[in-house]
Specification:
1084 residues; 3-stranded mixed beta sheet; elongated
Length: 1084
């Protein structure tokens, strides 16, 4: 029997494929034929309208064109003729005058040219005699002979903690030779002339000290020679210019500290008069120079508390010359910026030199690249041109087109429908003459078809429901169609349908004859499939869920992670104070997060997380210091904590000592020594603060961090591509972090509004959501079970209530659906296809809906059968299965195929869902054709034997069975179908559907593509609050990497120049193109 069953299933599959193939061929033929008819109609109709419009419009256009064209031709001919006459006269006259003028001008030009050559020759030999250090002032300086100029210092007399100090000296400049001259020539190119002699106000030691003090400038600015040259000019002239007294005024002198200079004084404070225009130009040439090591502008380091955003020329030099704030300045320099000549003191000549623009070459000094000089970059638009949208009549073009399509279709359809309806009235009269039913009976016939209550008995001679449905009497149709009159396709279709019906009838009869055997075999096979559940794999990582392994983004991320290790795992906390207002301090307004009490409480929380919170995993204690990112290790073992409390080095004493104005100073320049975090690195204000941006405002170079109302604590955790290197304690630590933060936020909800997440928060919430949905699944199945039991069991007699109910059958049907889901999961557990939480949550409902539908179809088909005394129970069940089995088979296969086609998606979550759903529906159909049919046969046997449902051991006295018509059948037969078949209702339905379809098409371009993380979270998840805070108050997005893969020849200089961004690189190098692209807002 088992092999017979297998053979029958094999035959069914072959027949099924044949049916599907024939169906596709016939469907394609009808689709093409109907499409051609409709297309031809619309082409003819619309062509006529458009043609009439264009004929009138083009006729007017052509007429106007010929009138204007002929007028222009005549006018042009007249103008050309007159112009030629006048032009010839003026050409001859003016040519004579120009020729005479050109001869005189050429003669004078050649005379002046020869005089200029003579003067240049004279300067060429005379100029080297006046060798000086470029002063750029309005006075001449003496050459090597030592004439002119006055010094303010010479030689070293002492030192302090920051460097050597010069001796006060008011004499003339002295010659500089030897090693000191070479050092000065290297430090200040162009100061020494070809003859190698120079009178200066510095000796060799001072020249060497100057070289050492300007070394940091060279270290940061060597990538931009123009900036380096310009920024060294003030220091070179201040140290060695032979005309120091013209622009330097000594403010303070102290006794010398060197033993050999006891009777002398050293200069500790000076005023340096300098042109403000010169200072501004120097700053402008250096403003855009970047520091690759910090990924910030160099001016952020050189400008002290102002940082790069608020830096200006005067602020730059004020910090460089400030003895108290700048730890590299041995002398205090008070820069006096002079721009108005009337403000210049008597006997003072402000220092003013030629400044080299960063995008221009000056002598041997090269220009800077685009990466370090914005003016050297090509011009780019401030915004990029988005794709043009289709506009029609001032509205969305697609929406207007769909509206016009719906209107034209509706008008055309209504016209045709009205014509056909009027024409069909003749058939109504003919039907009445042939004693046919009234058209109202046509709607009743349709209702009976929809309610599955059609009868084989004819009401009148020569008349059946088919004649009514076709709207014409049967006398016009042949009574019998001979086999020879059928086409090949009709024969194949008829044979296929008959064979499939026969096979299903036989199968139903077999299951009804041997219900226990079929149920036993089916349960064994199903339960063996369910055993694979123990082998299934659950995927909760969002990357594995939503990014295809072969997608470009996933492959590029994997390549980066393999070669550079993944980005840090992060734990992040957003904290907003409650009941705290902004306050005034000095001339500034500080946001609520700068409240000292609030900062103290947050510091306590932060120290608890970093020092006290721990997890015990496998008997080991794990603290944050065991897994955190330590960029300065092994020299510094402190964790990288991005929090403004790190401005005070996470120390409560320092926090209480320094006011919040210290935070303002650090936010201006986070690279100041006193602002560095405990890990010896900067704290980035835009990472550690939130809520300082207004609505629709983006992060700029100079945001107002003082407005912040949200404090952010970010804890980077080490991450590895090799997951085995991730300590098991990491999971335990993150769990403890989530538990602690949940309790802390609940305990402090009156004073703080807290949102938080760790790296594993999303995975944990997905698991929690799947577990929390289990009661929902159970309740849904219970409700569906009750519905099936009540809906399938129907009677109008209370005496048969316990017999006619279908509790056992309903319970069995629901269990079969559940077993089919488990069997599908088990099957893919054997195969090794990972499962997702989406499958556990959705597929039970999907299969339940389809399975319950099939249950009702099968039971209703059995109830509607015409019974005779010769029909046995197995035969009747076989007829019912044969009647609805083929349609259930086609429906199940079509649904499964649709889901299996969804498995072609590259998204792993969608792929897994489609595969599990398709297999669940197939298994559900197989189980319903075996287990449910057998169970249904047993239930029919019980009911015929008048046994109680559930308690089948109890038999009721025989009661005559009632014959009732069910409620839903009455609704479809007497109300819904007759109403739907009314002419005006049918027309309205078609028109409404057309407008609905066109509206749907018009809305397609407005669908936003994307999958936000918060959509996957349950409504009560704490992660949703974090996502809300991140969008509202955060201003830092995910990292972006540009990686050059292996195989690129980095040793070739030409290949290097195609990548780099500093001096000497190609103008279209990779890094320069990335910089230009980053300057176009809202494009990338």
């Amino acid at each position: 029997m088992f092999f017979i069953t297998l053979f029958i299933v094999f035959i069914l599959i072959l027949i099924l494929f044949f049916i599907v193939f024939i169906s596709l061929i016939i469907s394609l033929f009808f689709i093409v034929f109907i499409s051609l008819i409709i297309s031809l109609f619309f082409i003819v109709f619309i062509s006529l309208i458009i043609s009439l419009f264009f004929i009138v419009f083009i006729s007017l256009i052509i007429s106007l064109f010929f009138i204007v064209f002929i007028s222009l031709i005549i006018s042009l001919l007249f103008i050309v003729f007159i112009s030629l006459i006048i032009s010839l006269f003026f050409i001859v006259f003016i040519s004579l005058i120009i020729s005479l003028f050109f001869i005189l001008f050429s003669t004078l030009f050649f005379i002046m040219f020869f005089l200029l050559l003579i003067l240049l020759k004279i300067f060429y030999y005379v100029l080297p005699m006046f060798t000086v250090l470029h002063s750029g002032g309005q006075r001449g300086e003496s050459g090597s002979g030592g004439g002119g100029g006055q010094c303010v210092w010479y030689d070293h007399c002492g030192s302090n903690s920051k460097g050597n100090l010069s001796c006060a000296y008011t004499g003339p400049p002295k010659p500089l030779t030897g090693h000191g001259l070479a050092v000065l020539n290297t430090t200040c190119p162009g100061a020494v002339t070809e003859d190698g002699q120079l009178n200066t106000c510095c000796n060799g030691d001072q020249a060497i000290t100057l070289s050492h003090n300007t070394a940091p400038l060279k270290m940061f600015l060597t990538r931009c020679p123009a900036c380096l040259r310009n920024l060294r000019i003030p220091f070179c002239y201040m140290t060695c210019s032979p005309h120091q007294a013209d622009f330097i005024e000594v403010v303070n002198k102290e006794p010398a500290t060197f033993p050999n200079k006891k009777n002398e004084e050293m200069v500790t404070d000076i005023k340096l008069h300098i042109s403000k225009d010169f200072i501004d130009k120097v700053y402008s040439s250096c403003r855009d120079v970047v520091s690759p090591s910090t990924n910030t502008r160099v001016m952020g380091i050189f400008c002290g508390k102002w940082g790069a955003a608020q830096c200006t020329g005067p602020r730059l030099f004020d910090y460089l010359g400030n003895y108290k704030e700048n730890e590299y300045t041995p002398i205090n320099i008070q820069y006096q910026y002079l721009n108005d000549p009337s403000q210049v003191p008597q006997d003072v000549l402000p220092l003013n030199q030629t400044v080299q623009p960063c995008d221009k070459q000056l002598g041997d000094s090269l220009a800077c690249s685009c990466a370090d000089c914005h003016s050297a970059c090509p011009l780019i638009p401030d915004t990029w041109d988005a794709p043009d949208t289709w506009i029609m009549f001032g509205y969305d073009g697609l929406a207007v087109a769909m509206a016009l399509t719906a209107i034209l279709f509706s008008i055309t359809f209504l016209v045709i429908f009205a014509y056909c309806h009027k024409r069909n009235k003749r058939y109504t009269k003919m039907m009445m003459e042939h004693r046919m039913r009234h058209p109202e009976e046509l709607r009743t016939a349709v209702g009976r078809r929809l309610a599955n209550l059609s009868t084989t008995q004819a009401q009148y001679t020569g008349e059946d429901e088919n004649s009514l449905l076709h709207g014409r009497p049967t006398e016009e149709m042949p009574e019998i169609v001979m086999q020879d009159e059928l086409s090949v396709g009709e024969r194949v279709t008829n044979w296929t349908q008959t064979t499939v019906d026969h096979l299903f009838t036989k199968w139903g009869t077999l299951c009804a004859c041997h219900p226990w055997k079929v149920m036993g075999i089916g349960l064994i096979l199903a339960l063996s499939q369910c055993g694979g559940i123990y082998l299934w794999q659950i995927t909760t990582d969002p990357v594995d869920l939503w990014a295809a392994p072969n997608s470009r983004s996933r492959m590029e991320k994997t390549y980066y992670d393999q070669n550079f290790e993944p980005f840090y795992r992060t734990a992040q906390i957003f904290i907003r104070p409650k009941g705290v207002e902004s306050f005034e301090l000095g001339n500034d307004t500080y946001g609520p997060v700068y409240n000292m009490s609030f900062l103290v409480e947050v510091l306590r929380l932060q120290n608890t997380l970093t020092h006290e919170l721990m997890a015990v995993v496998e008997g080991e204690e794990v603290h944050l210091s065991d897994i955190c990112n330590k960029p300065m290790a092994p020299d510094n073992e402190n964790c990288n904590i991005q929090s403004i409390l790190n401005f005070w080095q996470n120390n409560a004493t320092t926090l209480s000592t320094l006011s919040v104005e210290h935070a303002k100073k650090c936010m201006g320049n986070a690279f100041q020594k006193e602002c560095m975090g405990t890990y010896d690195g900067p704290v980035l204000p835009h990472v550690a603060l939130g809520g300082f941006l207004d609505d629709n405002e983006t992060l700029s170079d100079n945001p107002n961090y003082l407005k912040a109302d949200t404090l952010v604590i970010t804890l980077p955790i080490n991450n590895y591509f090799n997951k085995s290197l991730l300590k098991p304690a990491l999971a335990g630590r993150k769990r403890e972090f989530n538990k602690f933060m949940l309790k802390y936020s609940q305990d402090n909800e009156l004073t703080m509004d807290i949102a938080y997440r760790s790296e594993r928060s999303i995975e944990d919430e997905l698991v929690r959501m799947s577990k929390s949905d289990l009661p929902t699944v159970i309740i849904s199945y219970v409700i569906m079970f009750l519905y099936i039991a009540l809906a399938l069991g129907h009677t109008n007699q209370l005496t048969r209530l316990l017999v006619s109910t279908k509790v056992t059958l309903g319970l069995g049907g629901v269990l079969i659906v559940l077993v089919s889901v488990c069997a599908a999961v088990g099957f893919y557990g054997y195969v090794g296809v990972p499962c997702t939480m989406l499958i556990i949550e959705v597929i039970p409902f999907l299969v339940l809906a389809v399975g319950v539908d099939n249950i009702f179809i099968l039971v209703e088909a059995y109830a509607d059968l015409e019974r005779t005394e010769e029909d046995t129970r197995p035969q009747l069940i076989g007829k019912a299965v044969g009647a609805v089995g083929p349609s259930m088979l086609l429906s199940s296969i079509s649904q499964s195929c649709c889901f299996f086609l969804g498995a072609l998606s590259d998204m792993p979550a969608v792929q897994a869902f489609a595969m599990y759903a398709g297999m669940s529906l197939l298994i559900n159909f197989v189980l319903q054709m075996t287990l449910f049919v057998s169970l249904f046969s047993l239930d029919v046997m019980r009911e015929e034997d008048n046994r109680f449902d559930v308690c089948c051991c109890i038999r009721q006295n025989k009661v005559e069975k009632d014959s009732e018509t069910r409620f839903l059948h009455k609704v479809f037969e007497t109300s819904y179908a007759p109403f739907l078949m009314k002419p005006w209702v049918r027309a309205v339905v078609i028109v409404v559907f057309m407008f609905w379809a066109c509206a749907s098409v018009a809305m397609v371009p407005h669908i936003e593509v994307g999958l936000e993380e918060e959509l996957s979270m349950p409504e009560d998840s704490y992660v949703l609050k974090y996502f809300e805070f991140l969008k509202k108050y955060g201003c830092v997005g995910p990292p972006v990497y540009f990686v050059l893969k292996h195989g690129y020849n980095f040793t070739d200089l030409d290949m290097q120049n195609k990548i780099c961004s500093h001096l000497g690189c190609n103008k279209d190098a990779l890094l320069i193109q990335l910089k230009l692209a980053s300057q176009i807002p809202n494009r990338y």
